[in-house]
Write a structure and sequence with these properties.
Radius of gyration: 24 Å
Strand order of the largest sheet: 1-2-3
Strand content: 5-15%
Largest sheet: 3 strands, antiparallel
Order of helices and strands: HEEEHHH
């Protein structure tokens, strides 16, 4: 099985690639003031994303608002926030592994240092709690990708 965190990062890379290939945002709807074009979706510096020539080509109001809201700027912000969450998760997982190794070394010493063992155990419990909370957040954040091939089955709701 693929590493779930690596899989999510692949999905984010794909989302970022698509957003960067699109017209930069923010996107907004406007009347371009042209004779044959009644509505235009424009991006950064008024670059054209979409033109609608007749009323039946216009998106419904809710669709129009949704399209403009989910522009590439928004997609890139979503990608970045999820990457930060994954980085935090991996950082805490590494710290927990280091602490577990330290605890094992302490337990292997014939003359036990009870104070150090207690400190390592307490720190391990704290890291475990943080890691569990972050893992839950990562799983919830991954749900929009549930329809894609490779989605971690153990994370399905």
């Amino acid at each position: 099985m693929t590493d779930p965190i690596a899989w999510i990062r692949e999905q984010l890379d794909e989302d970022e690639r698509k957003a960067r290939e699109a017209t930069p945002g923010p996107w907004r709807w406007t009347d371009p003031g042209l004779k044959k074009t009644k509505l235009a979706l424009v991006g950064d510096r008024d670059s054209t994303v979409l033109l609608a020539a007749s009323a039946d080509a216009f998106p419904a109001a809710g669709d129009a608002a949704h399209i403009a809201n989910w522009d590439p700027s928004r997609a890139l912000a979503e990608v970045e926030s999820t990457r930060r969450l994954l980085d935090m998760y991996e950082s805490i997982a590494a710290k927990k592994a280091e602490n577990s190794a330290r605890y094992a070394r302490l337990m292997a010493v014939p003359e036990l240092d009870q104070e150090a063992i207690t400190a390592a155990a307490t720190h391990g419990w704290e890291l475990t709690g943080r890691l569990q909370g972050l893992e839950f957040a990562v799983q919830v954040r991954a749900l929009p990708y549930a329809g894609r091939p490779g989605f971690p089955e153990q994370w399905r709701p």
